[in-house]
From TrEMBL:
InterPro entries: Plipid/glycerol_acylTrfase
GO MF terms, alphabetically ordered: acyltransferase activity
Every Phospholipid/glycerol acyltransferase domain range: 19-137
Alphabetical keyword list: Acyltransferase, Transferase
Biological source species: Actinomyces lilanjuaniae
Name the record gives this protein: 1-acyl-sn-glycerol-3-phosphate acyltransferase
Region Disordered, residue ranges: 205-245
């Protein structure tokens, strides 16, 4: 009623077996648009959903009836959510994960650096990761906004990429470097699809550790890009040359 959803790349969805679908996250609505893209292709999908939504009247009942997986954020119970997701994947089902862990805080609306949950699941189970990029749902309900803009109907576009084989990173989820690199590859694939949808080249990922956490339900501010090592050496060489002169 409020959107015209256009999905490309449906042929990339695995026909059988478990897989992890991953997507960027800009709006409280786009978790639904991403999952709808898979369900419309005839494949049921589960999601990792923040536990507070299970306490919302009606919605909580729907989530429980659909077998969605509650996530206890910032809690030791969070590992239990990953264990349940792993069980679902090993049973041959699909799981939706938003690897940023929250709505993007990037003021330019690009995907942020990812958290490691999707990579850990992929490494532990060996299932493929299906990258997805989406754009448009935030025009109906913007990031961290409470103002719904249903009219006129908005175009919501979803692009599904080819499945990622991440077996090169092994299965040892205690290998922090492998998990970090696997996470980065997942986010590069998602960002590439968003670039295609927007027709723009993405800047470096917004990083909560580098750019700073703006606080709950707030969009952040980008710091200047860090100086690359080669640039730093060039600047140092120029500075030393000036001193010699």
């Amino acid at each position: 009623m409020v959107s015209r959803q256009q999905v490309s790349g449906v042929e990339n969805i695995p026909a059988d077996g478990g897989f992890i679908a991953v997507a960027n996250h800009l709006s409280d609505l786009d978790s639904l648009t991403a999952m709808r893209s898979i369900v419309d292709a005839g494949i049921p999908i589960y999601s990792l959903t923040k536990s507070s939504l299970f306490r919302v009247p009606v919605l909580g009942s729907v989530l429980r009836a659909g077998g969605q997986i509650p996530v206890q954020r910032s809690s030791s119970a969070a590992s239990g959510s990953l264990a349940e997701a792993e069980r679902v994947l090993r049973a041959g089902e699909a799981v939706m994960v938003f690897p940023e862990g929250t709505l993007s805080r990037d003021p330019l609306k690009w995907p942020m650096t990812g958290k490691t949950g999707a990579a850990r699941l992929a490494m532990a189970t060996g299932v493929p990761v299906l990258p997805m990029g989406q754009w448009g749902a935030h025009m109906i309900l913007d990031t961290y906004s409470v103002r719904l803009r249903p009219l006129p109907r908005k175009d919501v576009r979803v692009r599904i990429g080819e499945p990622l084989d991440l077996s090169c990173y092994g299965s040892d989820v205690t290998d922090r470097e492998a998990v970090r690199e696997c996470t980065a590859e997942i986010m590069r694939a998602v960002t590439g699809l968003v670039e295609e949808l927007r027709g723009l080249k993405a800047p470096r990922p917004f990083d909560l550790k580098y750019d700073g956490d703006p606080g709950r339900r707030r969009v952040g501010v980008r710091r200047p890009d860090p100086v690359e090592p080669e640039e730093a050496r060039s600047d140092l060489g120029a500075h030393l040359g000036e001193e010699s002169a």
